[in-house]
């Protein structure tokens, strides 16, 4: 019999891993023929989360190899079937002596395992209130019978993960109304589920993810890997592009030096802010709002930054107009899943009026009338009626002067 390699771990060092999330069937018998080295745990340091440790990542690597998946520790913590499968995997590794815990750290090891179970339970409880509602809205009752039951549970793992992930990613982001940004994503999802006809899981996932590429582009690749091309393309279609991409070549030549200087000032101040706040991250991606960066500039930087913005304002305004025509002009070409999420997003934006200026409220009304209503009337009469109600509410609140006031689109973003 071939002797296995011994992999001794003295310290659970920090380790990171990120990969593609799939939904395999976690058959127990795979563990019995698993070719993996013994992992001996001799010491467990304090103040280190178990999922960030080397041993945990080694176990996760062999778990991925055994079941032909590519889970990261983060996706594992937000997937019901994957987490349950991994916990069984650890137990069987202990039984088969692939994982050897020395006597002096047994208690600490199992205490850490209990902590990770509790952490998973907390993640699950935050999404549980919507879990049953999504199942009822998106699946027929007979799909809970027999083999279909497991298929529904596996597909719902994507919902659990998307909900939990967006809650983490946007945890420090706020809207103009100072409402937490995740509340907007959740609000769009609720409109898809409760107010628009024909909800399905694709619409729910797109609703939860629809702003991640535009606001935190670092996660765009993750969306494609985890949720596939269909969801990723939908999110991309619902995301506004950088207005700079709509500058002509001549305009780029005329204002590029100002744009580069502006970006240089912004990045310098941003890096200082990140360094000062390295122990209390703004978001999962260290994203800082422009207003925070401008506030932190010294007087010389702020003066120069303001002058540059005034110089590029005509170019920016024209480019944004072109972007809006492109962004809103393609609504008719969106498929049913994409257009319903876009309608839900617009309805929620019309309702989210707390803290916004009259000018911005009127701009929302003007955009909705110009780009949305005629499409909604043909594609989704329910959405058309809801948007009309919200427009009437805003007009009653701010005055019926939408046709009298020309709304500018000079907001810098």
Q: Give the DSSP E fraction (strand runs of 2 or more residues).
A: under 5%
Using only CA atoms, what is the Rg? 25 Å
Unreliable stretches (pLDDT < 50, length at least 5) are 1-26, 279-286, 402-413
Helical stretch tally? 15
Mean pLDDT: 76
How are the strands of the biggest sheet laid out side by side?
1-2-3
List the helices and strands and how they pair.
Layout: E1 6-9, E2 38-41, H1 54-67, H2 73-76, H3 80-95, E3 99-101, H4 106-138, H5 147-169, H6 181-194, H7 201-209, H8 212-215, H9 220-237, H10 249-276, H11 290-296, H12 299-329, H13 336-351, H14 358-379, H15 381-398
Parallel strand pairs: 1-2, 2-3
Helix pairs in contact: 4-5, 5-7, 6-7, 6-13, 7-9, 7-13, 10-11, 10-12, 13-14, 13-15, 14-15
Could you provide a short overview of the structure?
Helix content is 62%, strand content 3%.
Describe this structure in words.
This protein has 413 residues and is mainly alpha-helical. Among the domains are: 6-146, no CATH class; 243-314, no CATH class. The chain has 15 helices and three strands. The chain has a three-stranded parallel beta sheet with strand order 1-2-3. The longest helix has 33 residues, at 106-138. It is globular, with a radius of gyration of 25 Å. The N and C termini lie far apart (65 Å). The relative contact order is 0.08.
């Amino acid at each position: 019999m071939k002797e296995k390699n011994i992999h001794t771990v003295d310290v659970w060092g920090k380790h990171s891993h990120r990969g593609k999330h799939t939904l395999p069937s976690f058959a127990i018998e795979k563990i019995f023929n698993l070719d993996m080295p013994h992992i001996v745990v001799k010491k467990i340091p304090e103040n280190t989360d178990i999922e960030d440790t080397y041993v945990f990542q080694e176990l996760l690597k062999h778990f991925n190899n055994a079941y032909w998946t590519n889970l990261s520790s983060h996706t594992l913590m937000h997937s019901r079937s994957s987490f349950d499968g991994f916990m069984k995997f650890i137990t069987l590794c202990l039984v088969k002596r692939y994982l050897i815990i020395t006597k002096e750290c047994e208690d600490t090891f199992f205490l850490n395992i209990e902590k990770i179970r509790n952490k998973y339970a907390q993640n699950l409880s935050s999404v549980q209130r919507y879990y049953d509602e999504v199942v009822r809205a998106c699946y027929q009752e007979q799909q809970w019978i027999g083999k279909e039951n497991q298929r529904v549970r596996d597909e719902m793992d994507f919902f659990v993960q998307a909900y939990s992930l967006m809650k983490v990613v946007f945890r420090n982001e706020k809207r103009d109304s100072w409402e937490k940004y995740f509340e907007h994503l959740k609000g769009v999802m609720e409109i898809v589920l409760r107010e628009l006809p024909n909800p399905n899981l694709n619409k729910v996932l797109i609703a939860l993810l629809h702003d991640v590429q535009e606001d935190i582009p670092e996660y765009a690749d993750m969306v494609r890997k985890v949720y596939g091309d269909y969801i990723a393309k939908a999110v991309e279609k619902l995301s506004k592009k950088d207005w700079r991409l709509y500058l002509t070549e001549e305009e780029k030549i005329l204002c590029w030096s100002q744009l580069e200087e502006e970006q240089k000032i912004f990045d310098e101040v941003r890096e200082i802010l990140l360094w000062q706040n390295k122990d209390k991250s703004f978001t999962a991606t260290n994203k800082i709002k422009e207003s925070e960066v401008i506030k932190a500039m010294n007087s010389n930087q702020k003066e120069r930054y303001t002058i540059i913005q005034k110089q590029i304002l005509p170019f920016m305004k024209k480019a944004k107009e072109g972007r809006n025509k492109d962004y809103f002009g393609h609504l008719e070409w969106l498929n049913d899943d994409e257009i319903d999420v876009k309608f839900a997003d617009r309805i929620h934006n019309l309702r989210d009026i707390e803290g916004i200026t009259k000018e911005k409220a009127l701009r929302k009304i003007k955009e909705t009338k110009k780009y949305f209503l005629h499409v909604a009337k043909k594609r989704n009469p329910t959405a058309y009626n809801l948007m009309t109600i919200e427009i009437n509410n805003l007009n009653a609140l701010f005055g019926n002067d939408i046709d009298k006031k020309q709304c500018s689109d000079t907001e810098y973003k």
